Amino acid sequence: MLVARFSVHVEQPWISPKARRLGSRKWLIKIHAGNGPDRSTDEIRNQNPCNLVDVLDTATQCIDDMLTELDMTVTDAGFQVFLLR
Questions:
Q1: Model-level pTM?
Q2: Helix count (H) and strand count (E) of the chain?
Q3: Class of domain 2-83
Q4: Taking Cα atoms as reference points, which of 14, 3, 7 lies closest to residue 77?
Q5: Nearest-5° angle of CA 5, CA 73, CA 8?
Q6: Given Cys at both, which of 6, 14, 20, 24 links 49, Cβ 3.0 to 4.6 Å?
Q7: What does the CA dihedral 83, 3, 33, 13 come to, rounded to 10 degrees?
Q8: How far apart, in whole angstroms, are the C-alpha atoms of residue 7 and residue 13?
Q9: What is the mean pLDDT of each run of 10 residues along the chain (85 residues)?
Q10: DSSP SS3 for 59
């Protein structure tokens, strides 16, 4: 289930209204950045259950790190957070 997403084109991340009741869980973070056909993607899974607010901090740091590592101008970047069952 998609719980949150962020794009550099939008000022605030979208967070599902159902996220308030989820509590400590395991999550999958998909991050991406690119410029046309040149794209970079990565996936991160947490080892121990944690709250969504902690995952959003991690996702934000990961996308910042990815943008720093890429030596190109990107036209699109962001992340998605999924609840793992």
A1: 0.86
A2: 1, 5
A3: alpha beta
A4: 7
A5: 20
A6: 24
A7: -150
A8: 7
A9: 93 91 93 89 93 92 89 88 93
A10: helix
In this structure, what token pair is assigned to residue 69? 């590592």
Residue type, 63: I
Could you tell me the residue ranges of all domains in the chain?
2-83
Q: Count the Cβ atoms, other than its own, within 10 Å of residue 11.
A: 7
* H or E element, residue 79: strand 76-83
What span, in angstroms and rounded, lies between the C-alpha atoms of 70 and 60?
A: 16
SS3 66: helix
* Structure tokens given for 38: 């040149």
Report d(CA 6, CA 16) in Å as an integer. Answer: 12
Structure tokens at 72: 């190109």
Residue 23, helix vs strand vs coil: coil
- Residue 67 is which amino acid? L
